[in-house]
Every structure is written in structure tokens, then in C-alpha cells.
Amino acid sequence: MAQSPSPPDTSECRLQEPVSLPDSLSLYTSNTPRIGSSDAPVRILEFFDPNCPHCRTLHNRALPQLREMIPADSTALYMRPYPLSRKSAPQIFALYHAHEKGRFSQLLDVMFSFGSPSSMTPKTLRYYARAAGLPADTLFRAVASGRYGDRLRRSMSVAKALGVDGTPTLFIEGRPIPRSSYRPKCLSTLIRKHLQTSSL
């Protein structure tokens, strides 16, 4: 007789100790791109690079599985860019513009579906704009303007203060999640534990 599969081991799912930030910096701000409601009881913060293959796997596979395991509307995912190379800056500027237009998650989905382009050509930007429902000319001007440079540098300052050294890097309510716990089952366990604690 075939044995039923053993449930995944979640005994090693854990959070690390919180990391303190200088008073001048904040994890969650009104202009931090967010997927989910600001009223969600659990805030997850991700540092990402739009060209990072591991970030792509997290968004295309792990997070959709996670959403099926946790209560609806229980989490908000805050997104802070952490470019691993200069070539990611134009895409990040495009994402900042999309956030201002209420199309951040749509453009992020397009980028992670598209893969990592060798360079940001007008043709690539035009494809991004069309697929995410943004006017292409407006997106071109926003990326070329350089007006998002300070915003990106501030995000990098937050990452440095938190000790971020790669992507993706995840936090739950300011507590780092070890990369060994990025499996959907582990993330679900950690979120449910936080929900139980916060309801006491």
C-alpha cells in the first residue's frame, strides 16, 4: 500500500531579530510601492531587482502559492528596489512612474514575465508600457528625466541600514526572514504565527 506523503517540515521556519533603523529612515512610507491594503495586519517588505531571476521565481511561483495558503487580505507586500547592477535603474524608474499612476503591480508582472533584457531599448519600454496599460511617451519621459534618482538612493540607504546584501530579501514586520524560509509553506507558517500573536 502506498504511503501518503509526509507534510512539509516547518520546524525550521523562523524570523531573525528585528533590525533597528535610524530615525531618518522608515521601512514603510506612503510612496513605497505596495501590493495589498495598507490596513493589512501583516506587512511584508521585499528588496528586489527587476532583473533578478530569484525574484522572478518568488513572484511567479512562490507568492501565488502563498496567497492560496493564507487568509485573504491578511498581508500587504511593500516593494523596495535594490539594483544589483546599473542596468536595472531604468526599469526601476519605470516602476516608480507606474506606481504614481496606480499600475505598479501590472508593470512588475510584465517585467517578471518578460525576463531580463540585455538593455532598456525604446522597443522594450514601449512593450512594457503597452502591456501594463501606460502611455508609452509619458513613460519614456519619466524614465529619461532622472527625477527618481533621489528616491532610489533613499531606498538603497534603507537597504544598507538593514544589512541587505542581495535579492530577494524579505522582512515580516521589520524582522528579516532567512532565505531558507522563503518556501511558501514556511512563509505561510510565519504569517499565521504573526496573525495569532497580533490578535492576542
**Helical content, roughly?**
40-55%
Number of strands: 5
Q: What is the assigned CATH homologous superfamily? A: Glutaredoxin
In the CATH classification, which architecture applies? Answer: 3-Layer(aba) Sandwich
CATH hierarchy, class: Alpha Beta
| Most strands sheet | 5 strands, mixed
Shape: globular
- Please tell me the overall pLDDT: 90
Which runs of at least 5 residues are low in confidence (pLDDT < 50)? 1-6
CATH topology: Glutaredoxin
β content, as a range? 5-15%
> Termini distance?
44 Å
Radius of gyration: 18 Å
N-to-C order of helices and strands: EEHEHHHHHEEH
Number of structural units classed as domains: 1
Compute the number of helices: 7
Which sequence of strands runs across the widest sheet?
1-3-2-4-5
Structural class: alpha+beta
Describe what this molecule looks like in 3D.
The chain is α+β, with helices and mostly antiparallel strands and 200 residues long. It has one domain: 3-Layer(aba) Sandwich (Glutaredoxin), CATH 3.40.30. It has helices spanning 53-67, 89-100, 104-114, 122-132, 136-145, 149-162, 184-198; strands spanning 34-35, 42-48, 75-81, 169-172, 175-176. It has a five-stranded mixed sheet. A hairpin with a 2-residue loop joins strand 4 (169-172) and strand 5 (175-176). Helix 2 crosses helix 5. The longest helix has 15 residues, at 53-67. The chain is globular. The termini are far apart. The model is unreliable at 1-6 (pLDDT under 50). Keywords: Disulfide bond, Isomerase, Oxidoreductase, Redox-active center, Signal. Pfam families: Thioredoxin_4. Residues 30-178 form the Thioredoxin-like fold domain. It comes from Salinibacter ruber. InterPro entries: Thioredoxin-like_fold, Thioredoxin-like_sf.
